[in-house]
Specification:
Blueprint: H1 2-21, H2 33-42, E1 46-52, H3 57-65, H4 70-79, E2 80-86, E3 92-95, E4 98-101, H5 102-109, E5 117-121, E6 127-132, H6 137-149, H7 151-155
Parallel strand pairs: 1-2
Antiparallel strand pairs: 1-5, 3-4, 5-6
Helix pairs in contact: 4-6
Length: 157
């Protein structure tokens, strides 16, 4: 009986140590689109918009592999206002000064036709550029660094 208790105790300790040993992945702190536009007025940072859809498999893969990457998450959280928008949503937002649904901004204003998609928006609310592509964490890091190289120029837009 003592051996059984000892085995159970050791197993419990191993299980606890396994949970403690797994580092919590760094996550992007996504914010509301309208909140990001408001914050950008007082703190001039570019707004990084990730457009996705529930049916988009590459979007889910990027959520699992790219946006959990510590470097990507750190860059997005510290140097941008990160926003996640459902491209199929009927919620009203202001895109490039026009009040439209997210879906109409996706098609009409940002002229997108594929997912996943990224829209980079200046603090004044005008879109700077769009990217439609699935990418690896390393590719996203390179893209974010390229955005930051042009940050001073683009923030003035």
């Amino acid at each position: 009986m003592k051996i059984l208790k000892l085995v159970v105790l050791v197993l419990l300790m191993l299980e606890c140590s396994c949970f403690a040993a797994k580092p919590k992945p760094k996550m992007v702190r996504w914010m509301d689109y309208t909140e990001a536009l408001e914050k950008a007025k007082s703190t001039p940072k570019m707004i990084f918009v990730d457009l996705y859809a529930d049916w988009c498999v590459p979007c889910r893969i990027m959520d699992q592999n790219v946006y959990t990457d510590p470097t990507v998450a750190s860059l997005l959280n510290s140097r941008f206002f990160p926003v996640k928008l459902n491209a199929d949503a009927q919620d009203s937002i202001v895109c490039d000064g026009q009040k439209k649904t997210v879906q109409r901004c996706y098609f009409d204003v940002w002229e997108l036709s594929a997912l996943p998609a990224i829209v980079l928006i200046a603090p004044k609310g005008l879109s700077i550029l769009t990217v439609t592509d699935s990418m690896s964490p390393q590719e996203m890091q390179m893209l974010l660094y390229q955005f930051l190289e042009k940050e001073k120029e683009w923030i003035e837009r």
